[in-house]
Amino acid sequence: MSTTETDKDPGQEDRQEDRHDDLGAAGSQLSTAPQEELSGVPGLGVVGWVRWFWRQLTSMRVALLLLLLLSLGAIPGSLIPQTGADLNKVDDFRKAHRTLAPIYDKLGLFHVYSSVWFSAIYILLFVSLIGCIVPRTWQFVGQLRGRPPAAPKRLTRLPAYTTWRTTADPEQVREAALALLKRRRFRAHLAGDAVAAEKGYARELGNLAFHIALIVLLIAFASGQLYKSDGTKLVVEGDGFANALSQYDDFKSGTMFQNDDLVPFSFDLKDFKATYEVDGPNRGTPRTFEARITYSKGAYGKEQSTTVKVNQPLKIDDAKVYLVSHGYAPVITVRDGKGNVVYHDAVPLLPLDGNVTSNGVVKVYDGYRDPQGKKDQLGFQAFFVPTFNPKSGTMLSQFPALVNPLLAVNAYHGDLGGVNAGLSQNVYQLDKTHMKAFKDSKGQLLKKLLQPGDTLTLPNGAGSLTFEKDIKEWAGFEIVQEPGSGWALGGALTAIFGLAASLFIQRRRVWVRAVRGADGVTVVEMAGLGRSESAKVPEELGDLAGTLYDQAPGAPDPDDDPSESPDSHVVPAEGAEK
């Protein structure tokens, strides 16, 4: 007949209490985790509620919950355009979603990482981790400074236990056990008639290191967002760049970033080289992108040469220079009707596809006069293919390298718009609002396909445009300063190793008691206790017992058959392999 919960043996709870009393300090403090208090709702009063709230906030389950909320809160920041990353995409999203945009504004989803709710989760997690770690750290330091607790009265109550009798003196057994445990890297000492030892402190150390690393990651993330800078610059072969705000094509930074925080350096792009697969299914796939540059640190730094490759940035103090894009910059020469050169430069064109089909514009602001001698401005739309195939029937490049380059040009004249008023313009777009197209002899839009060295002649002696044989390449660089990146990497690695230590290292205690029995023979008892139930504790105890037994072999029992081997009287550790 089974016993129900209401019909439990009244002596069962007494035996459990007796076991707890027997273990005493031996079974306590196997971890630095705060013990749960079985108290109910706190008493009335402000102090009681504050203490209750603090205990909840600094508990590990709340810290994990806040970490989960922080991860979930970061999802909108990666799915929804952010004002700090790309303001144009945010504007496009507002135009395309008239209903959602006002809701997102109220929720702060266009600036997630600086929103009130995300900052609240971030700060609460920070406080929770600190409030959890500080007391556990002091408790762990106290455990390191102390000694393993003495052996409980009855070692038979422990989950792993073994015993045998030996003719060796108790003092010799204890000395042998002490030396053995120290060789096995236990912290061991003599405590009365027993040796107390403990091992596995790296578990708690790893646990604390993991949580401290989380704090380091939070600080590094915050500093990276507040003090970071990220800008891009397109540099044509032969040109250079100085790390100043006015030199960037596009630039964004954290709220606490100052212009003086930019690392002083400059570099010149000497040569850009790209190679591609020439045949097979991967034809046209890039193999190498290399930018050979010379750079110097500071205003008077020594000039040095290096090569920047994809995923191999140039590191200068806290700044990193990444190679992120490339394209072609045909050299264009524009002359007026008298043959005077009014424009000569390499014109960067923006790629449109993987084969570097590109387009752009040429703008002549000053120095040009029409056939009547009046000041005028010229604009040319350019469409470039590095490898043109007449058989394809399309003006699309067939290969990204310069095999058969071709340039298509349309010509306009008039007011380029807003330049004289000091208004900025997109250098890759042509505003034709106040421009007139040049016409050919048939009254159609003047356009021509140019090979390197060819010239487009404008009608009525208006001048010409020459596509020079020299075709340069340009490289796009991204210059990043993230002051917290090193700390973030160190924190991430520490968190990984700390978590591994807390998961795979078992903290356990071993006691060896040796006393002389009533018959004058020494009785040896060994017991082990782990923080959690694990087969490793009895296995390790069995290994230690076997080693110690070799130094203190078993004594024959007078009541046993003397023909039996002394080894037959060894009681193996419970759960261990015999």
UniProtKB/TrEMBL annotation:
BP-aspect Gene Ontology terms: cytochrome complex assembly
Keyword Plastid: no
UniProt-listed Pfam families: ResB (PF05140)
Transmembrane segments: 62-80, 116-138, 208-227, 487-505
Membrane topology: Multi-pass membrane protein
Residue ranges occupied by any ResB-like domain in the UniProt entry: 60-541
Region Disordered, annotated ranges: 1-27, 535-578
GO (cellular component) term, any one: membrane
Keywords for this protein: Cytochrome c-type biogenesis, Membrane, Transmembrane, Transmembrane helix
Bias (Basic and acidic residues): 1-23
Location relative to the cell: Membrane
Entry protein name: Cytochrome C biogenesis protein
Species whose genome carries this gene: Streptomyces fodineus
Lineage per the UniProt record: Bacteria, Bacillati, Actinomycetota, Actinomycetes, Kitasatosporales
